[in-house]
Design a protein that fits this description.
mainly alpha; Growth Hormone, Chain: A; 2 domains; globular
Length: 532
């Protein structure tokens, strides 16, 4: 290995072209494997939970650790990997994490018990924690700010395509093949990604070696693990559960202490000083609202289509797939617009469209045609192409190249927390709103109301079939009760979609506060590059 001084060309290092491509595009090709497998894995496993529960004969609380263990490990590993990238090199750290992810995926497929599977999933999460932030950091470090719109669009293709393919692929595997294939699927893709990364990526590490911030590591691990676990449990146990409030309270206390410690440390594990940058702070806030808008639909729609419309998991996934494919097509267009006219106007248009389409979903019913639903979903796809990745571009506008790994790690860590919070929030929101609507509908049923008259006719019909008056009335009430419960659940979903529309609309207000990129940020001072 030899030390090569970076040349001051917009803060970017000049590398020779290979295979007819500039190095920055080779980086995209190299890391896209890791991004795709990590996002695909998070979505493909969720659809297999019921199957795995049957296979291992486990309760729902125990089987949920397949997802919870992965999420907790992924969350706590993100901060440490930014330090390791600065200390040992971003290429080396990324490849080791990719190798761990591949090894753990194979171990998941070989699992012989629920405990062994949960252990393998925790290892998988530890490896997966570095894939997204370090892949993103390598891409953004090579693309100058004026070209990051296209870079973000390319990065967004696997990020948004994998959640659409995951349920479809997972559904087919669960229905027609062995569940172990869900995990083995990562192995060949991951191995190719590791080999490509070994031969293409150049090593780069921070010129200043920071000591490990042990207090920050302990507090961030305890704080974010406790907070995410408490949020995850809220969906099943409710926000007022002692378990939820206890873990969330302890997690928030640790995070408050973490902020105090990190702001007083010259070499923090989590560089919270980055939040002093206007665009990084407001870009993160904007991304939070958009994440809830994106994952709100990804979480709620499959449940609505399967539980209320009676579709199979594969059928529901096929309904959602066209919109995801359109997103992959539209992302490059959104990236080009960001590079040409700036991110702010593109984001504002996208947020407006996302708000309107999220509001449209609040009118979803059992009678809504799939054509109408597709129009709404396709509109959301265009909106997401103009918002989610451009928001990340804005957040990283003014981040120096040498701080990119730390900035992206912090951004991804906060994203993990908000996704967990948004999913739990919407889940409990539907659960809490449904009984309220049920009581409201039920109190309007009287003997002279249209529904009351239907009950009388049903009771008479059951009596005509041989039931006595009491049993006939009970059967009629039971049937109407099911219909009332169904209607109340639909209204609960309406409220949840309306909530996502309101949250996304708040993102529009945040987008108005974004500032254009600082000119001096386009020419960062050169840094030493370690190349093999």
């Amino acid at each position: 290995m030899s030390n090569v001084q970076a040349l001051p060309m917009g803060g970017q290092t000049i590398h020779p072209r290979r295979f007819g491509l500039e190095y920055k595009w080779l980086v995209v090709i190299a890391v896209i494997f890791g991004i795709f497998t990590s996002v695909l894995d998070a979505t493909i496993v969720n659809i297999a939970i019921s199957k795995l529960q049957a296979v291992f004969g486990a309760s729902l609380d125990r089987i949920q650790w397949i997802s919870t263990g992965y999420t907790l490990a992924l969350t706590v590993s993100i901060p440490i990997f930014s330090y390791l990238a600065d200390r040992f090199g971003i290429k080396r750290t990324y490849l080791i994490s990719s190798g761990l992810f591949v090894f753990a995926s194979a171990l998941c497929g070989l699992s012989w018990s629920l405990e062994s599977l949960v252990f393998a999933r925790i290892l998988q999460g530890l490896g997966g924690g570095a894939l997204m932030p370090l892949a993103t950091a390598q891409i953004y470090a090579e693309f100058p700010p004026a070209e990051r719109g296209r870079a973000a669009a390319t990065l967004g293709v696997p990020v948004l395509l994998a959640p659409a393919l995951g349920p479809t692929i997972g559904g087919f595997i669960i229905q027609y093949a062995d569940w172990r294939l869900i995990f083995y699927l990562n192995v060949p893709i991951g191995i190719v990604g590791v080999l490509v990364g070994m031969f293409i990526l150049h090593e780069r590490r921070s010129p200043v070696v920071r000591p490990l911030d042990v207090p920050g590591l302990i507090l961030s691990t305890l704080g974010f693990a406790s907070l995410v676990y408490g949020i995850a449990e809220a969906g099943a146990k409710g926000w007022d559960s002692l378990t939820v409030t206890g873990f969330m309270g302890f997690g928030l206390l640790c995070i408050i202490l973490l902020v105090i410690v990190e702001l007083g440390t010259p070499t923090p594990l989590l560089d919270l000083r980055l939040l002093r940058d206007w665009n990084f702070a407001f870009g993160n806030l904007l991304a939070w609202t958009l994440q809830i808008g994106l994952f709100g639909a990804l979480f709620l729609l499959p449940i609505f289509l399967q539980s209320l419309r009676g579709l199979s998991p594969v059928q529901a996934a096929l309904v959602l797939m066209p919109s995801a494919l359109l997103t992959a097509v539209m992302l490059p267009i959104g990236g080009i617009l960001v590079d040409r006219i700036g991110a702010k106007p593109v984001i504002i248009v996208g947020v407006l469209a996302l708000t309107l389409t999220s509001y449209a979903l609040s009118h979803l019913s059992l009678q809504t045609s799939f054509t109408t639903l597709q129009v709404w979903l396709l509109g959301r796809s265009v909106a997401l192409s103009f918002t989610l990745q451009p928001a990340q571009v804005v957040a990283l506008y003014n981040v120096p190249r040498e701080a990119m790994a730390r900035a992206v790690s912090l951004l991804n860590l906060l994203r993990q927390v908000i996704v967990a919070f948004g999913t739990a929030l919407l889940s409990t929101y539907v659960q809490n709103k449904t009984p309220i609507h049920y009581a409201h509908i039920a109190e309007q049923i009287t003997p002279v109301s249209p529904t009351g008259m239907v009950i009388s006719k049903l009771a008479a019909l059951y009596q005509g079939q041989g039931l006595d008056a009491a049993h006939a009335q009970a059967a009629a009430l039971r049937l109407i009760g099911l219909q009332v419960r169904l209607q109340a659940t639909i209204l609960g979903f309406h409220d949840a979609f309306l909530l996502t529309a309101g949250i996304v609309a708040c993102g529009g207000l945040i987008a108005l506060l974004l500032r254009p990129a600082q000119r001096h940020a386009r020419t960062a001072p050169p840094e030493p590059i370690i190349m093999e």
